[in-house]
Amino acid sequence: MIPVRLVSTGKALPSEQLSSEQLDQRLGHAAGHTFKASGVRLRHVAAAAETQSQLAAAALHDALKNASLPASSIDLLISACGVQEQALPSTACFIAEQAGLKPGTPAFDVNASCLSFMAGLRVAAGLLATGGYTRIALVSSDLASRGVDWSEPEASLIFGDGAAAVILEKGGAGQGIRAFKLETYPEGRSYCEIRAGGTRRNPRIGVEPGDFLFRMDGKAVFKLASKLMPSFLSGLMAETGDDLSSIDVVVPHQASHLGMAHAAKRLGIPAEKVVDIYATHGNQVAASIPTALHEAVISGRAKPGTRALLMGTAAGLTIGGLVLDL
Amino acid sequence: MIPVRLVSTGKALPSEQLSSEQLDQRLGHAAGHTFKASGVRLRHVAAAAETQSQLAAAALHDALKNASLPASSIDLLISACGVQEQALPSTACFIAEQAGLKPGTPAFDVNASCLSFMAGLRVAAGLLATGGYTRIALVSSDLASRGVDWSEPEASLIFGDGAAAVILEKGGAGQGIRAFKLETYPEGRSYCEIRAGGTRRNPRIGVEPGDFLFRMDGKAVFKLASKLMPSFLSGLMAETGDDLSSIDVVVPHQASHLGMAHAAKRLGIPAEKVVDIYATHGNQVAASIPTALHEAVISGRAKPGTRALLMGTAAGLTIGGLVLDL
């Protein structure tokens, strides 16, 4: 057990809403098509003037408010987004500024695509356990709308923008990460990608407009993830010394309605244990897992003494699971 | 002390060399101008077909070779670059593939701009100390040439491409991180930046060709860093219980020749203790510190029983220092 305590959670949504009915009209689909194809009723979308770091800061302030803590009490900020705000510097610098953290508060990014929050939580627990930090803010914020390709019927309809944050401290007895596993399978590195944004595709080396847009081979992701997940999850639970029945609440990456339903059924997880905010948020990239965790906390499903399983797949292809004793 | 052991180091340089004489000719400067302005005699530049992850994998294989270890023995890869290869997925996925790591080996990114390696080393030590991993590869690779603006007299001449890697295991008695401090001052967030590459500047929201290029206000960086560094370094050394005379070798970020010389003089660090590879490598962004550390290791200046100080400034603006007992 790696001791870590979830002090509080928070979330933020951007100012604009986009219903599936609106998308049907905008994209010229028959009424009901977008909801049927995506499973999303409502997604939230940032206005042009809203930034990823502003949304992150709003989520962080919600988490601070929920614990009655001042921003000045944070002694490390970890940004755990799927996509950066700029190529340079790290997104954490922008969030630190927007959140009004004390100048000098250290800030860096952890990135494991849609599982950045899970990786960041494991990193934060390691840092808290080895000294130097007492209260860490971990924030995920993604604006998928900035890279959605509206001509892609599959990948364009499922996403929503959003941010969520947690405040972490060293855990007491029985509190912490009971098991953690992350596995990366680069054979799936091109199944989900945005090719531009770094050293590979850019004006100097050559870039096309489509390189700035999100590309997904959903079938390939589903096939590889379905093949890997059962034994992955068995291995993860073996680390806990318990089986899946010991889990009180499952917080999955809100990848897609079919993906979540299929995974729960195949893995033998009762639907009532699964936090499902997909229909009203869509897939929020790295912000999905902490947003769902926040909903579980404020609804009382994840409370001290319970055990949560965070799990999901990410671009890379990476699969991950984390068992958290709250 | 956070126990961590530097098992081995490695580096890689891209295929092309670019001397300051060649740059004088290419940019129409008088003979000697580029060297005088930059302090760099020779920089290494990736050919168009070379990728950041290929270079990273070459550095990782050099580190593996130097410890006679197979790639299959790595149980976690942390990519610690300054700029990503793509906006999505994480650069670590590409490095894992290029390096031929075992499928399933977990891989994620840590980003603190030019100090990503230092942050990654602290993160890795925390992970090793809290279980689950026994041998971590930490790799930094940057291709600054993909974003250099040749019309910028100050920022264009100092950079070079490169990569470096270290293999890390849990440390024995007296081995590890004796002190670590990272401080982020967002007032300097725009002093060094590449505005495109993420959600802030892109074809959807608006982007200009210059947004893909590196921008630096060198004077502002120098002024802020000079103001902060003395008390920062005193605080860092106070954590060790020793003073600067206990440091055997200083491994600075190779930011610029004037910056390094000024910092050493102002901080009272004897020049002979400072690893300076700048003239033959330039500023290699996040790859500078691990490349300099590698040179210190292979030259015998950093060996078991010695104490190294890693230090530098990064876009953000972030300043950092790490005292490593080898």
Describe the structure.
The structure is a homodimer of 326-residue chains. The N and C termini of chain A lie close together (12 Å). In chain A, β5, α4 and β6 (107-111) form a beta-alpha-beta unit. Chain A has two domains: 5-174, Thiolase/Chalcone synthase (Peroxisomal Thiolase, Chain A, domain 1); 177-325, Peroxisomal Thiolase, Chain A, domain 1. Chain A has nine helices and 14 strands. In chain A, the strands form four sheets. In chain A, strands 1-9-14-13-12 form a five-stranded mixed β-sheet, sandwiched between helices. Chain A has a five-stranded mixed β-sheet with strand order 2-8-7-5-6, sandwiched between helices. By secondary structure, chain A is α+β, with helices and mostly antiparallel strands. The longest helix of chain A has 23 residues, at 218-240. The first copy, chain A, has helices at residues 20-27, 33-38, 52-66, 91-99, 116-129, 218-240, 257-267, 278-281, 288-298; strands at 2-3, 5-12, 16-19, 42-45, 76-79, 107-111, 136-142, 162-169, 176-184, 192-193, 215-216, 249-252, 307-314, 318-325. At the A-B interface, α4, β6, α5, β9 and β10 of A face α4, β6, α5, β9 and β10 of B. β6 (107-111) of chain A pairs antiparallel with β6 of chain B, so a sheet runs across the interface.
